[in-house]
Amino acid sequence: MTETTVESVDTYVDAHEHVTEDIALVVEDTDLPRRLKDRVYDTVDAREGVTTEQADEIAQAVESRYLDTRVDPLDPVGTVSAQSIGEPGTQMTMNTFHYAGVAEMDVTQGLPRLIELVDARKTPDTPIMIVHLDDEHATDRERAHEVVWQLEATKILALGDVSTNVADMLVSIDLNDETLLERWPTYESATEVAGIVADIIEDNLGVETRRTGTEIEFGPEEPSYRELLQLVEQLREIVFKGIEEVTRVVIRKESVDDSDNDEEFVLYTEGSAFADALEIEGVDASRTTCNNIHEIYRTLGVEAARETIINETMETLEEQGLDDVNIRHLMLVSDIMTNRGTVESIGRHGISGSKESVLARAAFEVTVNHLLDAAIHGEADDLNGVIENVIVGKPVAIGTGDVDLRMGAAPSARKSADD
Amino acid sequence: MVDVSQHELVPDHSLLDEPEHVEEVLEEYNVKKTDLPKITRTDPALPDAAEPGDVVRIERDSRTTDTAVVYRLVVDS
Fold it and tell me: What phi and psi, each to the nearest 5 degrees, are found at residue A412?
């Protein structure tokens, strides 16, 4: 720890009117974390006229209370966390019905979402992204819309009418001028955009197209009714602009605290492609998030995945009114899930399934398989964990179970109680 | 490519390049190097110079204190 000097406390003295150098020195001398020290300063400041002795007393009291609330040695924190998340979990909604959470969007909530998170599912039931925009695009609705068209997957039905002419074996598309110019804002004329659309169709379907103005026609090489219908089917699937996974984008105006502008536009997307979204011009790549922990892991790394697991679990609990679950429990869960550098699920395929002890694994799920495999491979069990010792009937190495007390046998300074 | 380290979810990762620093960390926690949490070599937030066997220092904005420092061992895949 660094030495507390008069100079180093200057910042706290300057920041608070009623904090003297001496008060700052006694507070800085405690083992409190920065956050608690600051709160002591704030309290002392608010009270006004606190003497150095009183400040010392306050600091001592806070410190002893702080030391009291720390986890005791040999405390089974994992079990406590499991109970602390598990009990509120029983009060969560069990139905999978989604309802409009944020901006009329379908978002999985409650127990299903919590299970999804601790199971570390490859894709969530309802993937979403919260896309923040850079300063240039965040305040102007028009510019924000430009980003929307870069995100939202545009299919042919959004651009115009498709009709099938069976007699001439032709598919004809009548594109809507306004929509074209709206979705390709950088182009001047609709016919130019129609040319792009025609090119995309040619590339994807491998057919020759004929274009007059904003009308596009094409058909199968050989007259075939089946092929014609197939072309129409494929045409509907083509993504002309945007990200394929993103099916819908909602713009919301939100207030921000730490910026010159009071309000900014934030985009909520249904469907996610996090890495692709970050590359788009106008997207603020430092604040944009998504609710798929694997996508976060792939693009931003384990540490970001850890943060996301904590945020998502806490939000899920808060939404259900269970915000009194301490964040430390969720941090522990998240730490364990990301401990090996990847995102692992809690359960048979993840944490519990890769425990060292045979008996611990067997006690969780698929008992016989684990015992059989262990027997074939000649595994040994060191009986270090809790479950193993419960199974064999030994005291568990946790709490008082791990402490050996011996009564002092040697008589020291013999003195009778009668004296 | 986007600069991953600029994202607010990504804390500062720095390489412990001096072997003595690694020793200090292991001594402080009284653990073996392999007992540390891991980070894969392919992790996007990892400094470019990191090789398997290196230890990275991660300084997180903590929810319970101001900053929390953790260490991760770089491993293959």
Answer: -120, 125
